[in-house]
Fold:
Amino acid sequence: MEMLCRFTKLIIIASLLTVIPYTNYGQSFQQAEDSLAKVAPLILNAPSDSLRKEANQLFMRYLKENLQTPGSFSYAFDSLETIARIASPDGSFRIFNWNMPLDNGKFQYYGFIQQKINRDSTRLILLKDHSSSITQPEEEQLHAGKWYGAHYYALIEHRAGDKNYYTLLGWDGYTPRITRKVIDVLWFDEQGKAIFGAPVFRQYPENRGPLRIVFNYSGQATMGVKYEPSLDLPVAKKGLFGPKTKPFKAIVFDHLVPLNPNLKNDYRYYVPESSQYNAFLLKNGFWVYHADIPVKTSDRQQKAPQKEGEPEEGLLPPE
Structure:
């Protein structure tokens, strides 16, 4: 059965490689989407790195052609279930974003930013993942050609000073033993260049001036990092927490702790502490950190791409 499944996938990829390159702009977006939807799952499920890479290159080339076609910005492409499609609330751009698992247990990330120029024209920005060479991701301002790759699942628009910022929540299968959640910030300079990372985080105890937030935890755990657009919190005259409630835009996340105090800073053994939630609250355009938020979110665990073959045991190191 396994050999038959492998052979079937090879036949599918071979047939797609012969059909899709000869498609043209005469196709409808619906026809293009149908073709893309056949290739996209193979980026995740083809049986080898080489076949997944072939499927990914084919998908990227054909998606690029279609996103550069007039009228494409208003087409949803919503049947691409393995591809994240996130639009900015102001309608100025959207992101197409996905991951490709590798045989070594790591992931590579891909994406396009499609900017709306006017009714009929768009600008397409290719995102190039350099996360494997970025050693201090919280410290470095990046751009589309040097991007800290992640699989985004939420986008939050806000303004600080004279700039519009777009905070992105993402998942990163960093290594087979460590998973990351990323809170990044996208903005555009005067020339329309996409910039990642901004000094909009305040009072974060782990890093006093981060440009993005990176959480590290065990690859066997699930960490919730969730946007709450209207989170009621008790407030007092001098700040949180008091007798009255006030709604906040908030990013709420699990508090991470090592399984044993002796394992501090070994993120292979960090897991969520179920009794505590922390948050960044949006105040005057900045994300202000608060510990031990006295509320539980409606859905603690975010949906995110999951690692295949994830082991169920072995959290603790051998004695």
Summary: Confidence is low (pLDDT under 50) at residues 299-305, 308-319. The longest strand covers residues 244-258. The radius of gyration is 21 Å.
